């Protein structure tokens, strides 16, 4: 661990206090976990406190921990991960916020703190179904308006629920149940009986 990361961890622990669930340094990167209820207070402190000054939001992404590292996961299922940058201190931090309800994941929007989070939050909503409370225009970004489900959830079927095609008889695009049979995607190698000698 570098001295710079240790100093950053100490500063974050002092500034966030009891709003911090955990802080961990791994691979010379600091990851902090906070509760969803404290999201706006934590993010504002990270941006505005002079010893931190994380003035840029580089990325926001959704996470589905239902089968983390191919093992059963005993914590909350959905999280939002924020990657922040401090130009003033040449430092980066990762902030993880878990949604409290697995059946309807909701976290506060940080668009009022960093406007760059707008499209990232829409993407996480579209692909994971995470709702960002207070977002000014939360609607699908990458999938079709009639798309059913959220394709990055680990329980989403590989072939989807419905398929779309153009019907020449009706002269319009129609939706219908998926007709693809589940198939094995591992290639089979067929060799001759005396292959290799």
Automatic annotation (TrEMBL):
Keywords: Cell membrane, Membrane, NAD, Oxidoreductase, Quinone, Translocase, Transport, Ubiquinone. Residues 33-161 form the NADH:ubiquinone oxidoreductase 30kDa subunit domain. It is found in: Cell membrane. Belongs to the complex I 30 kDa subunit family. NDH-1 is composed of 14 different subunits. Subunits NuoB, C, D, E, F, and G constitute the peripheral sector of the complex. NDH-1 shuttles electrons from NADH, via FMN and iron-sulfur (Fe-S) centers, to quinones in the respiratory chain. The immediate electron acceptor for the enzyme in this species is believed to be ubiquinone. Couples the redox reaction to proton translocation (for every two electrons transferred, four hydrogen ions are translocated across the cytoplasmic membrane), and thus conserves the redox energy in a proton gradient. This is NADH-quinone oxidoreductase subunit C. It comes from Vogesella oryzagri.
């Amino acid at each position: 661990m570098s001295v710079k990361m240790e100093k950053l961890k100490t500063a974050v622990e002092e500034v966030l206090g009891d709003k911090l669930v955990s802080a961990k340094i791994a691979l010379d990167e600091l990851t902090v976990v906070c509760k969803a209820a404290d999201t706006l207070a934590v993010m504002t402190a990270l941006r505005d406190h002079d010893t931190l000054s994380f003035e840029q939001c580089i990325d926001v992404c959704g996470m589905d921990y239902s089968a983390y590292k191919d093992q059963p996961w005993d914590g909350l299922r959905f999280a939002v991960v924020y990657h922040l940058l401090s130009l003033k201190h040449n430092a980066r931090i990762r902030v993880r916020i878990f949604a409290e309800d697995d059946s309807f994941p909701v976290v506060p929007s940080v668009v009022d703190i960093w406007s760059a989070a707008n499209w990232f939050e829409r993407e996480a909503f579209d692909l994971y179904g995470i709702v960002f409370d207070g977002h000014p225009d939360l609607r699908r970004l990458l999938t079709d308006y009639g798309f059913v489900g959220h394709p990055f959830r680990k329980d989403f079927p590989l072939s989807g629920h419905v398929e779309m095609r153009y019907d020449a008889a009706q002269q319009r695009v129609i939706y219908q149940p998926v007709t693809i049979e589940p198939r094995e995607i591992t290639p089979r190698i067929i060799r001759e009986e005396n292959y290799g000698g």
